[in-house]
Design goal:
The structure is a single chain. By secondary structure, the protein is α+β, with helices and mostly antiparallel strands. The chain has one domain: Rossmann fold (3-Layer(aba) Sandwich). The chain has two helices and two strands; from the N terminus they run αββα. The termini are far apart. Strands 1-2 form a two-stranded antiparallel sheet.
């Protein structure tokens, strides 16, 4: 679980990357990135909630921009 790994590694931020898909795993052209702060007291569940907020806020906006441009 990526959120467990973020907390276990003591990372100070996490986030989302929206990118095009190509034949290589996670190597498509990046369209958009957003970050959230991770605090030492955050649990993996806290990080997941923060990331889900980013997804909820940005996915519709970015997808609409791609479709309409």
């Amino acid at each position: 679980n990526v959120h467990k790994a973020v907390v276990a590694a003591g990372e100070k931020e996490s986030g989302i990357t929206i990118h095009y898909v190509n034949e290589h795993y996670d190597e498509g052209q990046i369209i958009f990135q957003a970050k959230c702060e991770v605090f030492p007291e955050d649990s993996p569940e806290d990080v997941a909630k923060k990331v889900h907020v980013l997804e909820y806020n940005y996915f519709p906006e970015i997808i609409e921009k791609i479709i309409t441009s």
